[in-house]
């Protein structure tokens, strides 16, 4: 059986799923949380940025490598999206590099990066066609108005985003929730 391993990297965890390339069946999925703990001295972390992040990213990549066996013939990694948080984007790109650096050449050749957003991203009209419905747009409009009225210290109500739409699609197509 040929298996596709898909990876969705974040600064705090990595979502993953394995699919059969023969049957398109979802075989397994999960989230990898780094089991690296920042050492503390008298309750104060002894490492800060960038040392703590590098050690965390190294451990995440080791945990990802444990998912890769001979059945994994293709590895798809979600590309880093454009964002406002420069430090977060840098850490994500660093995480990709650390993972690729860990891979032997024969595994590295199986890796493809895919864009999630943008004109040709997997979430776009030309990808899975994930688009806000009129009801979603109306709800977001009302949510934004409500959030403006809340005290700045109050937690805001979430908007329906591309991630929301992707979760809906996965839940519908794979019977998850």
Task: Give a brief outline of the structure.
With 177 residues, the protein is α/β, with parallel strands linked by helices.
What does this structure look like?
- The chain has 177 residues and is an alpha/beta fold.
- The protein folds into 2 domains: 1-114, Nucleotidyltransferase, domain 5 (2-Layer Sandwich); 119-177, no CATH class.
- It has helices spanning 51-65, 86-102, 105-108, 134-149, 162-174, and strands spanning 3-9, 14-20, 26-32, 40-41, 44-45, 72-78, 111-114.
- It has a 5-stranded mixed sheet. A two-stranded antiparallel sheet has the order 4-5.
- Helix 1 crosses helix 2 (86-102).
- The radius of gyration is 19 Å and the shape is globular.
- The two termini are 27 Å apart.
- The model has no long low-confidence stretch (mean pLDDT 86).
